[in-house]
Amino acid sequence: MDGSSVISNLSQWSDRRQWYAFIGLTAFCVLAGTWLESPLLMFVPGIILGAAWMLTDLRQVFYLLLFFVPLSIEMNFSNGLGSDLPTEPLIIFMTGAFLLLVLHRPQRVGLTHVFDLLLFIHLTWIACSAMFAEIPLVAVKFTLAKSWYILTFYGMGRLFLTSPKSWRTAIWCLLIPLAITHIIILIRFSAYGFSFRDVNAVVGPFNRNHVTFAALAVVFLPFGWHLFRAYRNHKFIRVFILILLAIILVGVQVSYTRAAYIALLAGIGSVFLIRYRLIIPTLAIATIGIFAFGVSLVNNNRFLEFAPDYNKTISHFDFDDLLNATIKLEDISTMERVYRWVAGSYMISERPWTGFGPNNFYPNYKERTVRSFTTYVSDNPERSGIHNYYLMTAVEQGIPGLLFYLMLIFGVLIVGERIYHRTTDDVRKRMALTALASLVVIHVMQTMNDLLETDKVGPFFFMSIAILANIDQLNQEDTSIDESSTDPVSDREYES
Description:
- The chain is 68% helix and 2% strand.
- By secondary structure, the protein is mainly alpha-helical.
- The protein has 2 domains: 8-85, no CATH class; 111-480 and 492-496, no CATH class.
- 38% of the residues are buried.
């Protein structure tokens, strides 16, 4: 599935008359901008030329978008709107380009994999739950944002991330800017003595807080390790990659993010689970355990026994104190999560089928909280969510929404494990394992956070699924060739 120059016939710049028209437009805009004292007019030709380049070479635009993921900055405007710049405009552009491609050349898209169906069901239910939302406008905005994440990072990922060369290029586009941001942040942080108290002050402007900083790093590290292993015969490049990965790993360490530490260990452990075909029993045990734990808490309102002491549940400025407080249920961030989880459980029981609507947790949870779980930060001025993606899905999309989401992630992990074991090509096999390990890291992080709709984590989730689907398709194509031809494998058209 070659996505290179997929819409090139929409903008043919080789025609001499079009160049004359462009030169004339440039001269007019420069003169008009000077006459009207409006510098913005002078940028119009550049914007048009940039748009033309984007339409004729979408693969390079996709790589450019990946390059900006670690560098993007969350901007909040005076009208109450916010955006991630420059990634969000590029994501919207790529969504439009993908839709144009579907309309113009649907045969190039060819989304027929089981993952395509699972994502379609997931997105369809989100749209359905938005129709019953408490605040419909907020739900529609969330649905649109979810759509362009799927169409850009999964749809374009299916088109462009189809070979070892494309995988390496994509990882390089992420590694370099990510390492640069870590170097900048570590240098700034060193001036504070790497104090836990000041971690949130130094991770900006590239990250909202230390959690997003750590999350981006840990979901990338499996890909970075794949890149390191890809250059077995290039000692200098391997050393360079290893240095950058070490810098990123140091960043994870000084982020003081407990969920990131656990998720990274889970990602490493997943390698052994996948190799020994243990994904299904692991998922079964985890599901049964979580369900049993939830039932035990709900039974006779036993969860009320874990209500915190308001005066002891405080912020801690030493990481060792934070760990001790976490064990004693006296850490404010942990207990604030419980405060919201309790409210979420009441919201689920109130609307179990359709939920309150996508992105509708924050406007509706406070009147359903239990006062005994209140902490010093329960006023929630930053308007953050429930800090558990699975619970948030059930609150906002109902129990069916949670089941569809679990069907998606369980399906990807189970089928992905089978794809890994069916793959005979070593490079593809390593890439399948990399994508699965990154997905495990994301799923573990989501138990204590809700970051899937951010441009720091969301791209890895959808691209990993796209890569697994592409590897499965490449395996099927190889099987078809072997069955229909006696030509040697070396005669296949394969980009290495």
